[in-house]
Amino acid sequence: MRRDLFDEEHDLFRETVREFLAREVAPHHGQWEKDGIVPREVWKKAGELGMFGFSVPEEYGGAGITDFRYNTVIVEEIIRIGANGLGFSLHNDIMAPYLVDLTDDEQKRRWLPGFASGELITAIAVTEPGAGSDLQGVRTTAVREGDHYVVNGQKTFITNGINSDLVVVVAKTDPAAGARGITLLVAERGMEGFTRGRNLEKVGMHAQDTAELFFDNVRVPVANRLGPEEGQGFVQLMNNLPQERLSIAVAAVAAAESVLEMTIEYCRNRTAFGRSIGQFQNTRFVLAELATEVDIARLFVDRCVLALNAGELTAVDAAKAKWWTTELQNKVIDRCVQLHGGYGYMLEYPVAKAWLDSRVQTIYGGTTEIMKEIIGRSFGF
Ligand SMILES: Cc1cc2nc3c(=O)[nH]c(=O)nc-3n(C[C@H](O)[C@H](O)[C@H](O)COP(=O)(O)OP(=O)(O)OC[C@H]3O[C@@H](n4cnc5c(N)ncnc54)[C@H](O)[C@@H]3O)c2cc1C
Ligand 1 centre from 50 Cα, in Å? Predict the structure, then answer.
């Protein structure tokens, strides 16, 4: 089916991104997987190319364009080459709305030029060892002392955790006030008492730095609070989560598509019992089913991208997109591993790596179960 999401400028941008990734990322990614992290230089090079901060106003070094189709292009191209280490989508798709929409002019001046140039890498620290799905269970505290908040707590599983310079920290400014007691504060690299823990060893996404963060009496200036008042953090998170979930859904469909493509090619060339394995009816039926589901997923997600651009993407639709496409991604890739036989279990085959990388997709950004809760609640029972 013809895809009509993009205009000519998006296609041109895609070529630029593809060329950049082929030159600056693909040849080095294997090494980064061994290192467990990507070098900061690649962020700067991507920034020079204009890959960050489309939505950053021009006066702060961005393009001043709010069009999630550009974000979609970047995610799709990164997924196409399996570059699981680049935390660009966290920076572009998840963090941009916090730093562009929730900041005052003084904060914009301090942070946005570095955000757009790739010199300031960002992260968001919600999850704690004792609280992931249950946002209100966060125990990190921020106690106001004059012009500062004194922050204490621990975060875990933080994407870009090692490389990040600016971390939006979810903290309780009023632990007794429930959701209304949550505030978002920006912690900066080098603040006294702000330290990184382990770069965690994961099942997949080996080049991505996912880390623990510790806050021990960190004095964060009130000037680093997002929003004019305390206690707005929960609402700010809820407003931005649909975009985060859509970004994950875009990645899910892109991964499913690219693995399906490589599997069809594999089935064309691999022979057993004197013919290509694609000639077995079972192979064709499995591929037919997967191709159908992926095409349907693509249409829904493309529609969600347009809804986001129009300011109409609801939390419920984003939750539908997130859970269904990520579960589909896992199913597609698992079936594709099966069609590769023993080679599907060998890490030198991209399908094996895609299998490892895909597993987390139904967990982060809100688990499948939490997505179903959001959808289920909308029925108003
Ligand atoms: C690679 C990776 C990167 C991540 N990046 C970040 C990041 O950048 N920033 C960040 O803050 N976090 C990040 N996370 C954390 C991620 O968002 C959480 O792991 C996720 O939200 C789940 O929380 P949890 O691990 O505490 O699981 P829990 O909340 O303990 O859930 C355990 C199980 O219980 C189920 N469950 C929980 N509540 C309910 C309910 N009400 N109804 C039904 N079932 C329920 C869950 O669905 C799950 O199956 C990352 C995680 C990973 C693995």
Answer: 32
Average pLDDT over residues 56-75: 97
Distance CA 167, CA 189 (A): 8
Radius of gyration of the chain (CA): 21
Atom of ligand 1 nearest to the CA of 127: 11
192 is catalytic: no
Q: Could you say which of 33, 212, 244, 257 is catalytic?
A: 244
CA distance 92 to 78: 13
Q: What is the 3-state secondary structure (H, E, C) of 79-129?
A: HHCCCCCCCHHHHHHHHHHHHHHCCCHHHHHHHHHHHHHCCCCEEEECCEC
Distance 127 CA to ligand 1 centre (A): 8
- pLDDT tens digit sequence for 346-373: 999 999 999 999 999 999 999 999 999 9
| Dihedral class, residue 38 (left if φ above 0, else alpha if ψ from -120 to 50, else beta) | beta
Query: What are residue 123's DSSP bridge partners?
Result: 167
- Token look-up 């004197």 returns 274
Ligand 1 centre to CA of 9 (Å) is 37
Q: Is the dihedral of CA 256, 259, 265, 271 positive or negative?
A: negative
